Amino acid sequence: MNILNYKSEAECAINNPVLQKALANLQERIGKGTAQGYRELPEGPELRLKAHAIRMRSIENLDILLIALADGIRKNGGHIHFAYDGKTALKHCLEIARKHNVKLAVKGKSMLTEEIGLNHALNDAGIETVETDLGEYIIQLAGEKPSHIIAPAIHKTKEQIGRLFQDKLGIAYTDDPPALTRAARKALREKFLQADMGISGCNLACAETGHITTVSNEGNIRMATTLPKVHVAFMGMERVTADLKDHEILFRLLAMGAAAQKMAGYVSYIGGPARSGQTDGPEAFHLIVIDNGRSRILADTDFREMLCCIRCGGCLNVCPVYGKIGGHSYGYAYSGPVGAVVNPLLMGINRASDLCLGESLCGACMEACPVNIDIPRMLLLLRAKLAQGDKTWDVKVKSRVEQVSFAAWSCLIQSRPLYDLFLKTAYHGQKLLPRNNKMISRLPFAGKGWTQSRDLQPLAEQSFISRFKDNFAEKQND
Amino acid sequence: MIEIGQAEFIGNIKKALNRKDSCKQTLEDIIQTVPNSDDLKLLEKIKGRDNKIHAALFNRLAENGKSLNMVVTMKKDAQSAAASIARIAAQKNSEWGDKKTVVAWDHPLVRSLELSTHLQACNIPVHYPDLKSGSNQLKKFSTQAADSFIGITSADFCIAQTATLTMKTRVGQPRCVSLLPSIHIAVIKPGQILSDLKELYTLLKWDSDEQTEGITDCMTFITGPSKTADIEATLVNGAHGPKELYVFVLNE
Ligand code: SF4
Predict the structure, then answer these.
(1) pLDDT band at A4, cuts 50/70/90?
(2) CATH class for the region spanning A41-292
(3) Taking the domains of chain A in order of start, what are their residue ranges?
(4) Average pLDDT over all residues of chain A
(5) Cβ A277–B131 below 8 Å, yes or no?
(6) Atom 2 in ligand 1: residue holding the nearest Cα
(7) How far does chain A reach from its first CA to its final CA, in angstroms?
């Protein structure tokens, strides 16, 4: 996972008119569509609270559910592997690939494999790995990173994609989305039919029956899990639910959060290899269950709620910050509000501090979230940890200067005479600062950032309290 | 890299959850294992539906299918469904092979269409998975499916609320028939239409036949033809799966 520079990437994104248009369009269509869809649910938007309870109950029984899932998968003839970290997960996958002599792997979209860097590992092992979700395929051909959980190529125009396909697929240039889709359909079909291994993520697993589920609109995951002789699925350990009937609510809400749909195009329950006598389906099925920092989140009841997330990307489609800076600024697999909480928790709070500091705490994400996760609460908590430091999460105080300034400020405002003295000094001091239209246009030292893109109202000569006293006293005397 | 087995992996989770070693709960302790009165009532309701209710459900299904570019039509019998399929086969072009071919499930309802007879006129062969043959023959069917332009299946249920077809995988009913051809046609009976997903999950969980069979190694829900909006958010049907989806409801 490469760490990019949040601020410079964000600046780049804001100055890119194409991206700005695409993001605005996405939020206008899907963000609003989702909100409308929630209102139109027979049960109303409150259904999200029920979904939250279902997910929370699963998380709190995760040990029991994972044991049951493992038993179920084995009973169905599949294999299950537990990986404490990303590297171990990669090792399992490579071993499976070696055992089956895999040369070509086709992949369904999976943010988890992005998190652990699977494509790199497979390529290094000499296995051609093809992303098959159209958006991911475009990104892979262009050698870029996904910029949205559900719409990975949102930052590219049809003209750019047309030139890319002309260059990489050798087709005549076109910027017609249906024609481009057909070209990808044809190229990828070859790969599906040749591939020896299909790789997928897992949206939700079901402990009761011993199945994972995959969801797509394109049908690429069905292809990748039906045609090749081996299917390897990657699952974050939190994705399992207890009861088959939990899925009714969760799938409807997942589709609504992800794409403002009543139901996703394809949902498949997969519980092992093909049975004898069947003409298709894989000969071997492997599920790799990954911790990679999740048990640490689970242990902290303040953040446990984050494991309810079903990675629908809904919060991205309403976030005013994501809507301006786009997905690449976040620098990790997960972007938007979900990324601003998950990335720090998985990669280190200090390392990803810009992400949680950058969000606006407006609360839109929580309302858009199909499982009603209180992201703003957790963003605030992460910020508190950055301000004060935290032992359990190994957080170092982000800025000593800020910490000392606030301590000083706290002393200052607790003493009236001291505060008045400060105001007076500051009033006279501010005369030295540059002005723009009577407003202060640049603050010195730590205040520099504050005036970078806005001006500051100067202090008045007389404070409100003293003016109030003067006027009030006058009136009383009348 | 930290290599640990299942026991240690789960042990970590137990620790994170502050779970006592003495806790002996299993899945049965936390899920519903017997149907409650609401479940039973719903099962009754589904079983007790008459033609009028099925017709209303069909209308809802057809309406909801429309916005998904999915064609849902009532056919008076197998004959007329087969005639419609023959018409589609004659009109549409083959996408993958140079020759037009059709693949179909080995399923009583699909067999009742007598497709081979109806498609003979336009010289289009119909392939069924040959159950008696060995595994080589079975593999050949996948290749036939990849070359075909139409795939004919039935389904277990069709949900009116979301216009969703559901199908388990059984011998003779391969997944690729609803996936590889350019056009997917599903043939069902009115009694297979359910109102909503809640009914489906209630059946899957509590109906005794469903329970016995389980959800098989692959149960798929299909809602509309394959679609993508990955290029400038423009909706295009036929990303990887079928471009067109028809549901014929046989009203006989
Ligand atoms: S936090 Fe909620 S809205 Fe955001 S991706 Fe997760 S489930 Fe979806």
Answers:
(1) low
(2) alpha beta
(3) 41-292, 403-477
(4) 94
(5) yes
(6) A369
(7) 72
Amino acid A448 reads K
**CB contact set of A465 (below 8 Å; sequence gap of 6+):** none
Q: Which residues contact A366 (CB under 8 A, 6 or more apart)?
A: A315, A372, A373, A374, A375, A376
- Provide the CATH topology of domain B36-250: Rossmann fold (3.40.50)
Using an 8 Å CB-CB cutoff, list chain A residues near B26.
64, 67-68
Q: Do A84 and B2 touch (CB under 8 A)?
A: yes
Which tops the pLDDT comparison, B97 or B242?
B242
Domain ranges across chain B: 36-250
DSSP string, A129-161: EEE-SHHHHHHHHHT---SSSS-TTTT--HHHH
Instruction: Report long-range pairs for A26-30 (Cβ below 8 Å, ≥24 apart).
Output: A26/A148, A26/A151, A26/A154, A26/A317, A26/B233, A27/A317, A27/A318, A27/A323, A29/A260, A29/B233, A30/A259, A30/A260, A30/A317
Q: Please list the residues that pair with A211 across neighbouring strands.
A: A206
Which residues of chain A have a CB within 8 Å of the CB of B9? 66, 82, 84, 237, 289, 291
| Euclidean distance between CA atoms A282 and A275, whole angstroms | 9
> Across residues B49-65, what is the average pLDDT?
97
pTM of the model: 0.94
Smallest Cα distance from B196 to chain A, Å: 9
CA-closest candidate to residue B72, choices B133, B163, B201, B157: B163
Contact across the interface for B4 and A151, Cβ inside 8 Å: no
Q: What are phi and psi of A338, to 5 degrees?
A: -60, -40
Helix (H) or strand (E) holding A268: strand A266-270
Residue A126's Cβ-count burial label (10 Å; 0-12, 13-18, 19+) is exposed
CA torsion sign, A199 to A201 to A207 to A208? negative
Cβ(A45)–Cβ(A370) below 8 Å = no
Task: Say which DSSP state A29 is in.
Answer: I
- CA of A313, closest atom in ligand 1: 5
